[in-house]
Amino acid sequence: MDTIAAIATSSGIGSIAIVRLSGANAFALAQKLSHKETLEPRVATLSFLYDPSNDLIDQAIVIYFKAPHSFTAEDVVEFQCHGGSIVANMVLHSLIQYGARLAYPGEFSKRAFLNGRIDLSEAEAIAALIETKSVEAAKMLTRQLKGELKNFVLHVRELLVEILAFVEVNIDYAEEDLPLDMIEKINEKLLYLSSELLKTYESSKRRQGLIQGFKIAIIGKPNVGKSSLLNHLLSYDRAIISDIAGTTRDTIEEELRIGTHLVRIVDTAGIREAHDSIEKIGIERSIMAIEESEIVIAMFDNSKHYDDEDAVILNLLNTYASKKKILKVLNKTDLPRLFEVDYLGNDFMMLVCQQDTQALVNALQRILDETAHEDTLLLTSVRQMDAVQKAYENIKSASLLLREGELELFAFHVNDAIMAISSISMAFERDEILDKMFSNFCLGK
Ligand SMILES: Nc1nc2c(c(=O)[nH]1)N(C=O)[C@@H](CNc1ccc(C(=O)N[C@@H](CCC(=O)O)C(=O)O)cc1)CN2
Ligand SMILES: Nc1nc2c(ncn2[C@@H]2O[C@H](COP(=O)(O)OP(=O)(O)OP(=O)(O)O)[C@@H](O)[C@H]2O)c(=O)[nH]1
Ligand SMILES: [K+]
Ligand SMILES: [Mg+2]
């Protein structure tokens, strides 16, 4: 296996940059670079570094991690050099001249995985941690680094294997049906497993925004003040505002910090009967924006009469009531209210979005905090979500088949559930799928 090298720190100006080296020749290459005979493992050693022409390139701290006690479980040497990109690149270049190969993105983590140092869920947590959008997500991912998801997988797997072993004995030896109390016991276990998996799946689904950043859509009929709200939240004039209905024609998406959360806020085209084909596309995008968001701000106008366009919005809210957090706001409350607003029920917030959005921001922060603080295990990738869903479905099918006495089909589905749940930790995937996964990592990880 090649000895690989990469700059592990991010590019740009910084006080220290780390160049990392992993593989069987790491120590020999470090000897060449540092002109030192010995490096005591896991001790920070101050050393000058030289390139292959014996020119001095830096004074650095060198740490040797002797296999298997390193991140990759191979021999690893780290060079903590002076920051900026020039010095680190000279160190990297020298290592390559001495025979190291430039690492592919994610290759250090991939080696850690292949050497059994981490499982796939831990590898994914490492990758996600780097890109995380909130403090809460970082904490969740660190729990996965500690093996929380790995242990959950082991627990589910163990119960399933127990069930399978028990039933398989009975397929082979029993002439008559399984005793009823046995079936009851197995069913209890299946029920417990399916409810745990479903809980994990649904709560993870609600909290995907923790990883990617929550999306908040502002919707409403034309002219209620959606773009005015976006601009006030961003504190600058991002969107065009006018008293002409249909001003915003395309969705506008911007990043915004709310408390500890980095969210994306989406201003949408006012939803109404479209007047032309471009407006129609804009409105379709508004509906897409709802689909893609976790939180929906539905805006209504205090100065206008309730009309068919508001009805369309209320209808949409009904459709998404169970899937999204919805905040109804009544805007333009600085203007006199000439018409009843009982169509809104009593759970809405009054707003003058051009003057003060603090109450709305507080409400958003409360929702974000509540979602973030759910304590259930968080699945952090589509891969993990699919695996849990597949395990869940197979357990459901198995449960039905058990009741019908179809033991062989039952065993087949339990087996599929085991494969599905195990895939979160282990690789049944072919090489190229693993390659694809790890190549999404940062360079030097
Ligand atoms: N300088 C540096 N900082 C870093 C990393 C790194 O690789 N280098 N990490 C990279 O992601 C993270 C820490 N992860 C690591 C995980 C395991 C080992 C390691 O050497 N494990 C050995 C020894 C364990 C021990 O002494 O307790 C082992 O598990 O056998 C090192 C870093 C974050 N900070
Ligand atoms: N009095 C008052 N006027 C407001 C308020 N918010 C927005 N407006 C006005 O309402 C009009 C429409 O505002 P926009 O922000 O363009 O409305 P919109 O919902 O984005 O409209 P479309 O993009 O056309 O769907 C503008 O003239 C704003 O100045 C408010 O709180 N009070
Ligand atoms: K407008
Ligand atoms: Mg607008």
Describe this structure in words.
By secondary structure, the chain is an alpha/beta fold. It has three domains: 4-117, Gyrase A, domain 2 (2-Layer Sandwich), CATH 3.30.1360; 125-206 and 380-425, Up-down Bundle (Four Helix Bundle (Hemerythrin (Met), subunit A)); 210-372, P-loop containing nucleotide triphosphate hydrolases (Rossmann fold). It is 47% helix and 16% strand. The chain is built from 15 helices and twelve strands. The chain has helices at 26-34, 85-97, 107-114, 120-131, 135-145, 148-173, 180-206, 209-212, 226-234, 277-292, 308-320, 358-372, 382-403, 407-422, 431-439, and strands at 4-7, 16-22, 45-50, 56-65, 76-82, 101-102, 215-220, 252-258, 261-267, 295-301, 325-331, 349-350. The strands form two sheets. Strands 3-4-5-2-1-6 form a six-stranded mixed beta sheet, covered by helices on one side. It has a six-stranded mixed beta sheet with strand order 8-9-7-10-11-12, sandwiched between helices. A hairpin with an 8-residue loop joins strand 1 (4-7) and strand 2 (16-22). Helix 13 runs antiparallel to helix 14. It is flat. The mean pLDDT is 91. Bound molecules: ligand FFO, guanosine-5'-triphosphate, potassium ion and magnesium ion.
Task: Put the structure in a nutshell.
This is tRNA modification GTPase MnmE. The chain is of the alpha/beta class and 445 residues long. It has three domains: 4-117, Probable tRNA modification gtpase trme, domain 1 (Gyrase A, domain 2, 2-Layer Sandwich); 125-206 and 380-425, Four Helix Bundle (Hemerythrin (Met), subunit A) (Up-down Bundle), CATH 1.20.120; 210-372, Rossmann fold.
